[in-house]
Amino acid sequence: MNEQREAAAEGPGGQDVPAVRGVARQLFSLGRDPLPPMKRPRWLNRLPHALVVYVAVLFGFLTLTQVQDHYHVNDPSVIVLCLFTGFSIVAAMFRPVAAWWLGLVTYGFIAAAIHGHVGWGQTWPWTPIGLFAFAPLVLLVALRVPPKVTAAVVSVSVACTGIAEMLFKPERSQSSAVGALLVFGFAGLLGYALRATRLARGQLVVQETLTEEERARRTLLEERSRIARELHDVVAHHMSVISIQAQVAPHLVENPSPELKENLAGIRQNALEALTELRRVLGVLRSEHADDPANPHHPQPTLAELDALVDNVRAAGLDVTTETAGIRRPLTPGVELTAYRIVQEALSNCLRHAPGSRVEVGIAYGPRELHLCVANSAPTRPAPPSPGAGHGLLGMRERAGMLGGELAAGPRPDGGYEVSAVLPMDPPGGSVSEKKKDA
User: Structure pTM?
Assistant: First the structure.
């Protein structure tokens, strides 16, 4: 909030007048601004608050002792002022600017109380302990306010010291203005450095979160683009078949009527137009990934090629067994492609993250659904660092969800991992060509 106020205080073009107004407004702002706890470790998250309370009690006691023993002021009001000294430090944990003003006024009364008791060489208006007792207030303010406000706090504190010395300095006293400048300036710089470090760490955490979200989003978009290219091949194949069949059909009928020829010509024309639009919209994806296996020169894989995939994984050093249940039969191209890609990605994850494990691949053909399961045992050796983005599961879920299926993944009790998917045999919203083929 303070950073937003600081940014708002700066006028367009970095004008100084609005900035001065913003600093003055924050300098007289008595709003609540709690001291943030430590985030790590959790059991020490309130350690800063405990230290502040300890410092408040210590400096309150030392101030009272010095005023009574060195300045020989035994007025009961001094005890109350020393209590306010410690109270202002505690209050700075919640309302730093208000506590700073309270501390400044309190030390003004202390200076008035000891004015007639200052001996030769003794400092005034600050006592030696008073300088260091007021420094925590400056530090706690600097931790919560922008640098310009911190500079104003230090300047006002030193200015009040100088004005008091010029107007009311006892004859035998020693100046404390230089000491106030050094002590308060150091406290302000320390608070500014700690505040800048805390803000930088917070921004780094936010940036890391945004980067991870952007990486996941980019991976999802890349997977969707890959799916789009693969679906382009499937749909383009069927549209081409429709066009060719519509062109050949009149030659298969003896004496076809003009109406039949006209309808078949319309079907062929619509198929060609749809194919052209499809290539115009999705074909640009191929120019971005000319070497991708999904280009027109590579046929889309199916479950019939699963044995070759498993052989490649075995050659890479993984013990893979396969088992098929149910009546094996050809499926729609989209389901075949999705099932192959899910098994392929699951086996790739086993190679990357579970070296030396035993992998079981199960495929079950049900009446309405295709069940896939890829499970591996615990790895026998540490996995090498993987250069991948770590979002393979995201792509598998995207593929399963595209067909109206489900995918689950998680660790097994024996230390291994399992990926299982259920894909419908007849995906909702299937293409007309696929439905006609199934019929």
Answer: 0.51
Residue 276, both tokens: 């052209």
Of the chain, the end-to-end C-alpha distance in Å amounts to 65
The pLDDT tens digits for 294-306 are 444 455 788 888 8
- 333-355 burial, b at 16+ Cβ within 10 Å, e below that, comes to bbbbbbbbbbbbbbbbbbbbbbb
**Rounded CA gap, 396 and 224, in Å?**
11
User: Which of the 8 DSSP states describes residue 407?
Assistant: E
| 128 Cβ contact partners less than 8 Å away, ≥ 6 residues apart | 66
Q: Give percent of the chain with pLDDT exceeding 90.
A: 37
**Per residue in 97-125, is it b (16+ CB within 10 Å) or e — as a string?**
bbbbbbbbebbeebbebbbebbeeebbbb
Q: Residues 418, 373: contact at Cβ < 8 Å?
A: yes
Choose between 1 and 266: higher pLDDT: 266
Rounded Cα–Cα distance for residues 262 and 264 (Å) = 6
Residue 89: name the closest of 48, 149, 154, 133 by CA. 133
96, 145 in Cβ contact below 8 A?
A: yes
Question: How buried is 64 (Cβ within 10 angstroms: 0-12 exposed, 13-18 middle, 19+ buried)?
Answer: buried
371: closest CA among 410, 332, 333, 400? Answer: 400
Let me know: does 31 contact 99? Beta carbons within 8 Å: no
The token pair that represents 297 in the structure block: 């020169």
**Residue in 228, 233, 213 with CA at minimum distance from that of residue 275:** 233
Q: How far apart are CA 8 and CA 194, in angstroms?
A: 23
Identify how many contiguous H helices and E strands the chain contains and give both numbers: 14, 7
Q: What percent of the chain has pLDDT over 70?
A: 81
List pLDDT tens digits, range 372-411: 999 999 988 887 665 444 557 877 888 888 888 999 999 9
Are β-strands 406-411 and 417-424 bridged in parallel, bridged antiparallel, or unpaired? antiparallel
Asked if 356 contacts 323 with a C-beta cutoff of 8 angstroms, the reply is no
Flag whether pLDDT at 121 surpasses 90. Answer: no
